[in-house]
Amino acid sequence: MWEKKDFMPGGELQRLQLSRLKKSVIYAYENVPFYRKRLQESSVKPEHIQTLGDITLLPFTTKEDMRQNYPYGLFAVPMTEIVRLHASSGTTGRPVVMGYTRKDLDDWSEQVARICLMAGVNKDDIAQISFGYGLFTGGFGLHYGLEKVGATIVPFSSGNTERQLMLMRDFGTSVLVSTPSFALYMAEVAEDRGEDPAGYGLRLGLFGGEPCSESMREEIEKKWGLKATLNYGLTEIVGPGVSGECRGSAGMHICEDHFYPEIIDPLSGEPLPHGQEGEIVFTTLSKEGVPVLRYRTGDITSLLTEPCPCGRTVLRMNYITGRTDDMLIVKGVNIFPSQVEDVLSGVSEVSPYYQLVVHREKDYIKDLEIQVELTGESFTDSFQELEKIEQKISNILKAALSITLKVRLMEPRSLERTTGKAKRIIEKDQAAG
Ligand code: ADP
Ligand code: ZN
């Protein structure tokens, strides 16, 4: 039964991973010309993979490889076998397209069901899905997983916040599925209507698609009076369902029998030991439509090896601290939005709404301005007061990042809200004011 797969005894899990890995490499080699060529270029033959450690012999696959093979270049089966397509948003170029066979879809709903179950969803729950239904993997991914668990699904999709709230109340929604940003925004809209979000009766949140700092999680939990759980996934691998939190809130359990994780040094590509922070790389162990070998996600995290009190034997990954694409190099210092967020979360005068505004000159970043909203209570007309807060934030940033950054306090509710993923980095021309 699928519910048991997170509890496989150690040795058994590794044996399953190894036999699946060997099969997947042969499968990709035989059915995807791209992989055959890549392996041949690095003189690797599928039979060289004899242990799990041998995975490091395989070359990496990158987002660029996926884009260059747009749309169907990495598919391992004829289109007659593909029953669904999804794609990532592709804001920075061609989208990445994922194709699923019927078995892939069955596996995917099982993976998501495991994530839902470990978060504590049950048959009595009414789960409102506020992820977009469409090419984005979020909506449909959670939909079929929750259905497998047996919850009652409200397939709302994203947007239309007022109506979301109305139905949430009328239908007695107990579980909210959304990005953390949207959960926070919905609470804000409820408050604007003079309501207490905690009165809505949500008991559990399944949040994913973007990073969520501890302070943001606390804020969401406090406002809605729910338990927030995080889950992680990406289109290039499958969508949501790659990993998720159990009730212990100490990292996200990976569906390790389907996705083999590694951590590498993002600069050198060298494998890093468990526990060390680096870029997470995944190899799919069971996919038919689009098998993926050693995909570089660009997401920075670490693998946690401590056994989890919940008894699940699959590894956990830590929360994502940043994406390599989101790293800004300012005056020689590497900065991730999450580092800035960490600092801001310790400042009581400001809200969780912030943006990093990048001023570019030719090909380098000349300046970085941190725009952050004041809370309603700390908003004031006193120039002196504002300057004091700005200075305080700037000082803490300097201590944390060893660089002086401009801080600009914004009026409450002045930064853009989102019904999907928050945009933390913006170019100067697109910034407000
Ligand atoms: P897009 O690239 O268009 O955002 P996806 O929806 O496939 O497409 O997004 C996957 C990415 O979203 C991941 O690579 C990761 O950076 C981010 N992500 C997803 N879940 C989480 C999470 N729980 N915490 C942090 N980042 C996440
Ligand atoms: Zn656990």
Q: Briefly, what is this?
A:
With 433 residues, the protein is of the alpha/beta class. Helix content is 30%, strand content 25%. The chain has helices at 10-31, 33-41, 63-68, 102-119, 137-149, 161-171, 180-192, 214-224, 337-345, 383-401, and strands spanning 82-87, 97-101, 126-129, 152-154, 175-178, 204-208, 227-234, 239-244, 252-254, 259-264, 278-284, 295-301, 303-304, 316-317, 322-323, 328-330, 333-335, 350-361, 364-374, 406-410, 425-427.
Distance between the termini: 56 Å
How many structural domains?
A: 2
Neighbour order of strands in the largest sheet: 4-3-5-6-7-8-9-14-13
- Quote the beta fraction: 15-25%
What CATH calls the topology of the largest domain is Rossmann fold
Question: What does it look like?
Answer:
Helices cover 30% and strands 25% of the residues. The chain is α/β, with parallel strands linked by helices. The protein folds into two domains: 1-324, ANL, N-terminal domain (Rossmann fold), CATH 3.40.50.12780; 328-432, ANL, C-terminal domain (GMP Synthetase, Chain A, domain 3, 2-Layer Sandwich). The strands form five sheets. It has a nine-stranded mixed β-sheet. A four-stranded antiparallel β-sheet has the order 10-11-12-15. The chain is globular. It binds adenosine-5'-diphosphate (ADP) and zinc ion (ZN).
